[in-house]
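Let us practice reading a record.
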Amino acid sequence: MGVGGVGKTALTQRFVVGRWVKKYDPTVEECSQTTVDIDGKAIHVEILDTAGQDAYRPLRETFMHTGDGFLLVYSITDDQTLEELRTIREEILRVHMDRKVPMLVVGNKVDLASDR
């Protein structure tokens, strides 16, 4: 989860397909699936790539109820995107049944570090 334009879809596609996608349409909601090997065990993973635009904020809350874990993504080229993760994290904690649901903060767009 994260605001629009931080690269959530790019990270998802890199993880699922194994390559960086340079151009794509903004996401409303897209579910991707893959299988990963963890300690010799095949684990099925479903990733819900959510919209980051404010227009879809009410829809985001419905995703937050059921997630087993969350990546909170920001762009290292835009400090405001990191600040906005605080609100998203608070939303997750407000609506999710498990107050200890795993969350990981990810700084994206390291390839654009010169734009910092």
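A brief commentary: The chain has three helices and four strands.
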